[in-house]
Amino acid sequence: MQCGPSTRFLKFHISDRYSLSNCEVRDVTNCRLLSYLVTYRRLRFFGHIARSSPIQDHHRTVSAAIGKRSPDWRRPVGRPRHTWLRAVESDLRHLNTGLSSDWRKTASRDAWRSAVDTATLKTSLGIMTRYFVISALD
After folding, report:
1. CA distance 66 to 103
2. Residue 74 resides in a domain
């Protein structure tokens, strides 16, 4: 019998007739949800870009995209509606701040780190809440 990728990752053998749910695998491996990791790294990268030198292309591009667009601007046909900046904005949505104020907040690493921790707290608490609800029902 061959071990699947998940059993090699867990470093113990699980018979093929048993199946593990994602919650059980996360409990054994002490891993967080992938969505938490993506959100956390996206926000950290946003802070990295904001703190970079203003003469660098990536800094100028993102700062121009955060600014106001002209009223006659239209998204080109075939371009995605959901952009990276919209994803960052949705990650920071429950902080009740705009992208331009978050852009300024990144100048202080400590303030930005606490903002990132607060923004990702909802995702990590969602894991714990689901786990306690499931275990209470069993």
Report:
1. 9
2. no
The answer to whether 85 touches 62, Cβ cutoff 8 Å, is yes
Q: What's 111's DSSP letter?
A: H
Give a yes or no: residue 97 inside a domain.
yes
User: Each residue of 110-122: pLDDT tens digit?
Assistant: 999 998 988 888 6
**Between residues 65 and 127, the one the model is more confident about:** 65
Do both 22 and 39 map to the same domain? no
Distance in angstroms (rounded) separating the CA atoms of residues 31 and 50: 29
**Token duo for residue 78:** 């075939």
Q: Are 14 and 57 in a shared domain?
A: no
Pairwise CA distance, residues 50 & 35, whole Å: 23
